[in-house]
Amino acid sequence: MKKLGIVLLLVVCSLIAACSKGTDAPPSDAAAVADAANTGSDGERERPRVAFVYLGVPGDGGWTYEHDQGRLAMEKELGIQSTTVENVPEGADAERIFEELAQDHDVIFGTSFGYMDAMYNVAQKHPDVKFMHASGYKTLDNLGTYLGKEYQSAYLVGMAAGKMTTNNHLGYVGAFPIPEVIYTINAFTLGAQSVNPDAKVSVVWSNTWFDPTTERQAATSLLDKGVDVLAAYQDSPASLQAAAERGIWGIGNDSDMGKYAPDHYISNPVWKWGPYYIQAVKSVMDGTWKAESYFGSMKDGITDIAPFGKNVPQDVQDLVMAKKQEILDGTFDVFAGPIADQAGTEKVAAGSAMSVDDILNMTWFVEGVDGTIPQ
After folding, report:
1. Which CA distances in Å does 72 have to 52, 139, 272, 305?
2. Which residue has the higher pLDDT, 69 or 60?
3. pLDDT: is 8 or 177 the higher one?
4. Domains (ranges, CATH) in the chain?
5. Residue 321 Cα to chain centre, angstroms
6. CB–CB of 191/156 below 8 Å?
């Protein structure tokens, strides 16, 4: 990354660190320094001013950590010093932060579903600023969305779970009852059933993205029901750790969580945001950016599975990796029929597959899931 000098480097680090640690330093202060770092020797800005808004902190070891890794990859590749604002709750505070950043940034990434309305409102007032929202569905000429087909990864770890269960009772702690989580649970279930037709998946909701205490309580409720493999869709490893304490196999989320329960860890879906962030900011720089609803695949490098835990049998690993290759080759579609819902009603006929739009709007569970979707 190009710097103006040692002094400027120290100033940049100081301000970004202050913002990252949740101090009162306003986003515009860090933005001013980032703008200087993105300016040529003649004073003319050469690169866009980019900002990232995080619900948590990179230290969560999950969702925010992987977004921050993607941001760092973008900075390294494009020579851009970006602004980060951490611990921004969804709601009115988020709208205020996005409004402040829009005053002195060209590109703003919002990395939580709950930022959607805030970003939509601010984007309408700042048509010259480009906004990109992770996991949402509202768009404008200057507001795009981005996400990845994590359900491909969920299917694969579901296969491993289906092979490793001994009582065919799997558990899943869902975050919020939104399509992103619902279709991930469905893919996990379909993966498990593909190798073990008797596998069932019990679901409870934590209604959190990152709240270890609440997530542990939800996990415990499933462990008390006798599940012998437990998966979760949150940013913390709380469910995985709760499972390990009972001697139960666990599956994490977002980032490689094997270190939190090495003896009882299977694997988990992981995000790799670097390719998207590099591509998106490059398109701004070369003038080709346009608002889109990006939905990257495993083949695009946006999603993958973490390395298997040390106690996962080799035959299970080989089975999963063979299916992964089919996904990469484009010869296997997770949501190809026949697929039925919980009531046994056919939702996807044999010989057909769900469209991207249908997947992104999924509000029903597949057959074999024990749980409800609150309305």
Report:
1. 11, 26, 12, 21
2. 69
3. 177
4. 6-148+272-296 (3.40.50.2300), 151-268+306-370 (3.40.50.2300)
5. 22
6. yes
Nearest Cα neighbor of 134 from 33, 14, 254, 306 is 254
The residues that bridge with 170 in the sheet, in sequence order, are 201, 229
CB 157 within 8 A of CB 251: yes
Residue partners of 303: CB distance under 8 A and separation at least 6: 148, 149, 150, 152, 153, 269, 270, 271, 272, 296, 297
**Each residue's pLDDT tens digit, 118-172:** 999 999 999 999 999 999 999 999 999 999 999 999 999 999 999 999 999 999 9
Model pTM score: 0.86
Residue whose pair of structure tokens reads 């509000």 in the numeric block: 363
Beta strand spans in the chain (E): 50-53, 83-85, 107-110, 130-134, 143-148, 169-174, 200-205, 229-232, 249-251, 269-271, 293-296, 303-305, 339-340, 346-348, 369-370
Could you give phi then psi for residue 27, rounded to 5 degrees? Answer: -55, -35
